[in-house]
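Structure first, sequence second, as always.
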């Protein structure tokens, strides 16, 4: 064997926690052996007192939003690796009229040499031409999930970057319905990822809230109310049922939206919901203030526990970060001027361990499912998320007793702030391995940027 990890406790999704030795060869998990079993190896890692999770997979990152893609990849992938993440699914707009393979190749040429972890692409469908070239993206580029915003028009076009990319096709119900019909041609294997908010409601309500003089996170919550999110989910779930297109709703922020997911799931098993750490533990009263401006907004406090319950009971399937690393200066001004989004991947696992596991809200097995196994399953990455022989040796060793106060500089992101700044979190990753190589250890990068692009279309050959 190349490496033996001895004396740890394996957190194996769907199986439970197992005291066993883990053997790695050629970047794969080669065997899981009884405690103390003899097995010669070139190197041995003593994981006494540590829990070994499958490497976390962030299904929702935006690298290259606030600085160029190469530089942002270098920093955000490092922050992700230090935080226990071994794979991300990256959302990306394509500037051309359709999904141009040359553009995608250029993108991979920039990301791959800079990424410390593996990654897949999720492309935005924003134009008729995109809809018409889905086949090319799936079959030639290995993209098996596509993003829709539902909100990209008029007032939302002022969000940074959108005006430049142009929104030639408004996100009408007809456009979304027809796009879902197109994705449905792949027999339930190609997923539509939706940012669900009813923009018509937002456009009507926003001027009224602004005129009222309200400020702060509570104002932003009023501008984009819970009902706008809940209504969009109901409508999209209806289209998913009619078209047969799998539906993945990103960043569920409130109890009412989670209820709509639960209801839809009863009729259709191919509907999934994602939440984020910020909706689980932050709210309109949080001291982060305008730094926490994001869409959908941080909600009233009562939603935090409703979302933990939905994550625990299977209504919500995954946790993503919506990582969009910006600087504190991008957040200057009132809630009306501050930029949206913030860095998130680096604090995801500690937040789930500290505020979830240690406070009795979620089990370690469920954390492994929502941060890894379910993401791999929904998004077609059979070699990831399982911690079983034959799969990639993507691992994170966790010290559940380690306590540390969040300090943005320690996260190694491009961002110079964290919405969790000053939080004392208990439970931190102490080592991250990507395909058997140690990439991060004790909060520092120790490996090389050796990430690989994951083609997620193996189902085409079956
Ligand atoms: Zn996002």
């Amino acid at each position: 064997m190349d490496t033996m990890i001895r004396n740890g406790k394996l957190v194996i999704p769907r199986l439970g926690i197992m005291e066993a030795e883990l053997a790695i060869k050629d970047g794969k998990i080669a065997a899981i052996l009884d405690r103390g079993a003899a097995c010669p190896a070139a190197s041995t890692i003593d994981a006494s007192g540590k829990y070994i999770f499958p490497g976390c997979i962030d299904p929702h990152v935006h690298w290259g939003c606030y600085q160029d893609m190469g530089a942002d990849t270098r920093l955000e992938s490092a922050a992700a690796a230090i935080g226990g993440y071994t794979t991300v699914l990256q959302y990306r707009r394509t500037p051309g009229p359709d999904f141009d393979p040359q553009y995608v190749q250029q993108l991979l040429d920039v990301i791959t040499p800079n990424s410390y972890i593996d990654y897949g692409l999720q492309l935005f469908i924003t134009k008729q031409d995109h809809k018409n070239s889905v086949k090319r993206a799936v079959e030639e580029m290995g993209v098996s999930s596509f993003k829709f915003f539902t909100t990209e028009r008029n007032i939302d076009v002022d969000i940074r970057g959108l005006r430049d990319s142009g929104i030639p096709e408004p996100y009408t119900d007809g456009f979304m319905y027809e796009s879902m019909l197109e994705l449905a041609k792949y027999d339930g294997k190609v997923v539509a990822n939706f940012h669900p908010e009813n923009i018509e409601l937002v456009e009507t309500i926003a001027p009224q809230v602004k005129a009222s003089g309200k400020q702060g996170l509570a104002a932003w919550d009023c501008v984009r109310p819970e009902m706008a999110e809940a209504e969009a989910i109901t409508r999209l779930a209806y289209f998913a049922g009619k078209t047969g297109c799998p539906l993945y709703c990103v960043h569920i922020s409130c109890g009412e939206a989670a209820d709509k997911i639960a209801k839809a799931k009863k009729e259709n098993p191919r509907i999934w919901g994602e939440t984020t750490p910020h909706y689980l533990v932050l709210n309109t009263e949080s001291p982060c203030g305008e730094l926490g401006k994001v869409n959908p907004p941080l909600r009233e406090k009562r939603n935090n526990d409703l979302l933990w319950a939905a994550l625990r009971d299977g209504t919500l399937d995954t946790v993503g970060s919506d990582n969009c690393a910006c600087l504190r200066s991008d957040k200057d001004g009132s809630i009306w001027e501050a930029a949206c989004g913030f860095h998130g991947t680096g604090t995801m696992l500690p937040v789930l361990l500290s505020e979830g596991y240690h406070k009795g809200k979620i089990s370690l097995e469920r954390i492994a499912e929502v941060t890894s196994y379910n993401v791999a399953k929904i998004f077609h990455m059979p070699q990831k998320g399982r911690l079983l022989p034959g799969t990639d040796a993507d691992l994170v060793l966790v010290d559940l007793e380690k306590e540390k106060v969040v300090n943005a500089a320690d996260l190694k992101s491009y961002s110079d702030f964290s919405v969790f700044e000053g939080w004392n979190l208990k439970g931190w990753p102490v080592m991250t391995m990507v395909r058997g190589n140690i990439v991060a250890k004790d909060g520092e990068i120790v490996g090389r940027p050796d990430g690989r692009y994951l083609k997620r279309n193996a189902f085409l050959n079956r």
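Margin note: The domain at 55-386 is CATH 3.20.20.140 (TIM Barrel).
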